[in-house]
Amino acid sequence: MNCYGERSACWFLAIPLSTRHQIGMDAQKQKSKYSIIVPTYNERLNISLIIYLIFKHFPDVDFEVIVVDDGSPDGTQDIVKQLQQVYGEDRILLRARPRKMGLGTAYIYGMKHASGNFVVIMDADLSHHPKYLPGFLRKQLETGADIVTGTRYVKDGGVHGWNLMRKLTSRGANVLAQTLLWPGVSDLTGSFRLYKKSVLEDIISCCVSKGYVFQMEMIVRASRKGYHIEEVPITFVDRVYGSSKLGGSEIVEYLKGLVYLLITT
Length: 265
Fold this sequence. Notes:
Component of the dolichol-phosphate mannose (DPM) synthase complex. This protein is α/β, with parallel strands linked by helices. It has a single domain, classed as Alpha-Beta Complex (Spore Coat Polysaccharide Biosynthesis Protein SpsA, Chain A). It contains ten helices and nine strands. It starts with 6 loop residues before the first helix and ends with a helix.
């Protein structure tokens, strides 16, 4: 190849393929913006730490955190407003709702305010550690996936802080859903995910669930639509502060949702 007058092209071709691939991923990362939606209800003790950890583990990424608070009576919104003074109102967005209106609708509401071309959904109670965010981003850049989901049920994934009964309940619910729905992913009920925004908008438009079943419906419908889904192993850690919002009514809703998806997908 004649390189006279084409020095930049020859220089690039001389770079090892793996390095060129990394340069391409870095360029794509620089062009992308990530909107991280964090629904809250009574998370005053957790929200400051989760925000700090997001900024710590996402240092060279263009992102915003959208806190969707359902009228927390414990002062969660006051803490978020203080965080806005530290990190900036353009990086921390508070989108308050008057009362508890469901997890699914919280994501829908947050997405309406998202300016990124990628959307991350995660819990505020520290069960989803932000240290996994770079792995989600890297997996998406490497594979071009439409969705990257955290999973507890593959090698290097797991759960910490649950008693045996809760582990059996979670595993049983997941196995039951796997058997009936064949979604092609190992963790149906996880809620730590990265989506292309256009994909999330498409899937949400098809979903009818509003509670904890929402996560399962999202991933099942994404699978049925043929979207490219990748998984990243995570360790789910039970909340340190506050109380779990999962109760008997949510379990009943899960079973009803499972039957609904079996019939409609």
